[in-house]
């Protein structure tokens, strides 16, 4: 009986630790506790979908290529259009999450979906893997780039985003997993959690 109990405890902790690695629950020495009951099946599916896209590249650095064009087609656009938001929309759709199917970044961060803003003094809800971030560009006077939060730290955020590059440009060449300073984000939206208006 004691042996069975020890094995059960070992299995539980192994499962919990594996889950923390799966959800990207670490940013350097910073960590955030994700509990198993916080994650919905759709959120876990979303993580699986967007992580599989890491490494996708444009064909000729002109917002083209088979996969990139699939993202754009999902939003009613063709090759050549900026696609960071189309990538987010496509991933949400593949995970079975209702979304505006848009290639327009601001549309993915509507007020009713915002759970975090850079201007708030305190975090009301802590963002987690699968939430959508937006970056404000003063030159455009709007959110002009977006992607997924993959891990949320005290000052460093791990992201997965499309139409970027190693330098973090909003006009890049592929899907990358990146480190960004939290202070450079403008807002974060939660699409994985069902809202009353979605039902």
The arrangement of helices and strands along the chain is: HHHHEEEEEE
Structural Rg:
18 Å
- Structural class by sheet pairing and helices: alpha+beta
Taken from the alpha-carbon principal axes, the silhouette is globular
Q: Which residue ranges are poorly predicted, with pLDDT under 50 across at least 5 consecutive positions? A: 4-39
**How many strands, what sense, and barrel or not for the largest sheet?**
6 strands, antiparallel
The total beta strand count reads 6
Helix content: 25-40%
Report the portion of residues in β strands.
15-25%
- Give the helix tally: 4
Look at the structure and give the mean pLDDT. Answer: 84
Distance between the termini: 47 Å
With strands numbered from the N-terminus, the spatial order across the biggest sheet is 1-6-2-3-4-5
Question: How would you explain this protein's 3D organization?
Answer:
This protein has 199 residues and is an alpha+beta fold. Helix content is 27%, strand content 21%. The protein is built from four helices and six strands. A six-stranded antiparallel β-sheet has the order 1-6-2-3-4-5. The protein starts with a helix and ends in a 10-residue tail after the last strand. 36% of the residues are buried. The model is unreliable at 4-39 (pLDDT under 50).
